[in-house]
C-alpha cells in the first residue's frame, strides 16, 4: 500500500450509486500500486461516472434557483471535486457555476485532539455567497463534524440563501444531525475501517483516481 497516500475511512453515497461493488475490482488502470494490495472499491472510471451523475443532480436542483449557485470545496480533496463538478455542469448544461474553497481548520471542534495542521485556503467564489445557493463539496462524509465546521466557517464569507452538501462518499457513522444533498456512493463500512479517496490533482497520476477501504488495524492509526 503506498504509504505516501493518505489513509481515509469510508462508506459511499447517493441518490447514490448503490450497485453492489465488484469484489475483484475492475480492470481499470487505476489498480492498486502493489501486487498484494486489495483492489479499490471505486476505480477512476467509477469516480468519473459518479461525478457525472452528481453534476446532473445538481443541475436539476439548482435550475430551480436560476443557477444562482456556487460550489465551495472543503480542502483538501473537496476542492478538486468542486472544480470537476463545475466543469461537468458546464459541459452538460452550458452553465458555469463559480468555484471557491473554504478552509475549516480553525472551526473544527477537535483542533486540540488532532494536533497542528497546516491551514487550507479559503477562496471566495466569483460574485460571493450572499443570497446564493452554496453547495459545499467534500470527498467523504463520516461524523459530519467537518461539515459542521464548514457551516461555521461559511458565516465569515456571507449569508447564503441556502446551503447544500455534496459528497463523493458517505460512509455513515454520523455524530451530528447532518446529511448530504448529493451522495456519490454509500459505502457501508465498519467504524474501524478507513476510506481513502485518491484524486489525481492531489495524489498524482499513479495510481490516479481511486477509493480504497482499508482495515485501519493493518495500517496503524486509521487516521485519515
Ligand atoms: O465527516 P467527518 O468525520 O468530519 O469526516 C470527513 C472529513 O474527513 C476528511 O478530511 P480530513 O480532516 O482527513 O482532511 P483532508 O481532507 O485534508 O485529508 C474528509 O476529506 C472530510 O473532509
Ligand atoms: O476521509 C475520511 C474521513 C473520515 N473517514 C474516512 O474513512 N475517511
From TrEMBL:
GO terms for biological process: regulation of DNA-templated transcription. Keywords: Glycosyltransferase, Transcription, Transcription regulation, Transferase. Signal peptide: none annotated. One of its GO terms (molecular function) is uracil phosphoribosyltransferase activity. It is an enzyme of class 2 (transferase). It comes from the Bacteria. InterPro entries: PRTase-like (IPR029057), PRTase_dom (IPR000836), PyrR (IPR023050), PyrR_bifunctional (IPR050137). Its EC number is 2.4.2.9. NCBIfam families: PRK05205.1-3, PRK05205.1-5. Belongs to the purine/pyrimidine phosphoribosyltransferase family. PyrR subfamily. This is Bifunctional protein PyrR. It comes from Jatrophihabitans endophyticus.
Amino acid at each position: 500500500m503506498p504509504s505516501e497516500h493518505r489513509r481515509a475511512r469510508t462508506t459511499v453515497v447517493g441518490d447514490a450509486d448503490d450497485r453492489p461493488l465488484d469484489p475483484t475490482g475492475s480492470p481499470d488502470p487505476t489498480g492498486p500500486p502493489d501486487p498484494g494490495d486489495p483492489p479499490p472499491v471505486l476505480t477512476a472510471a467509477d469516480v468519473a461516472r459518479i461525478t457525472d451523475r452528481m453534476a446532473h443532480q445538481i443541475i436539476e436542483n439548482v435550475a430551480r434557483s436560476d443557477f444562482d449557485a456556487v460550489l465551495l470545496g472543503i480542502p483538501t480533496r473537496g476542492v478538486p471535486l468542486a472544480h470537476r463538478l463545475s466543469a461537468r455542469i458546464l459541459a452538460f448544461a452550458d452553465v458555469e457555476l463559480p468555484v471557491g474553497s473554504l478552509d475549516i481548520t480553525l472551526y473544527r471542534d477537535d483542533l486540540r485532539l488532532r494536533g497542528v495542521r497546516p491551514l487550507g485556503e479559503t477562496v471566495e467564489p466569483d460574485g460571493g455567497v450572499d443570497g446564493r445557493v452554496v453547495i459545499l463539496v467534500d470527498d467523504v462524509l463520516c461524523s459530519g463534524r467537518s461539515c459542521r465546521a464548514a457551516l461555521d466557517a461559511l458565516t465569515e464569507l456571507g449569508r447564503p440563501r441556502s446551503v447544500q452538501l455534496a459528497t463523493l462518499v458517505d460512509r455513515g457513522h454520523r455524530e451530528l444531525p447532518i446529511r448530504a444533498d448529493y451522495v456519490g456512493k454509500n459505502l457501508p463500512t465498519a467504524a474501524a475501517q478507513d476510506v481513502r479517496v485518491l484524486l489525481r490533482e492531489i495524489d498524482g497520476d499513479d495510481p490516479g483516481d481511486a477509493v480504497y477501504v482499508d482495515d485501519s488495524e493493518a495500517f496503524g492509526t486509521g487516521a485519515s
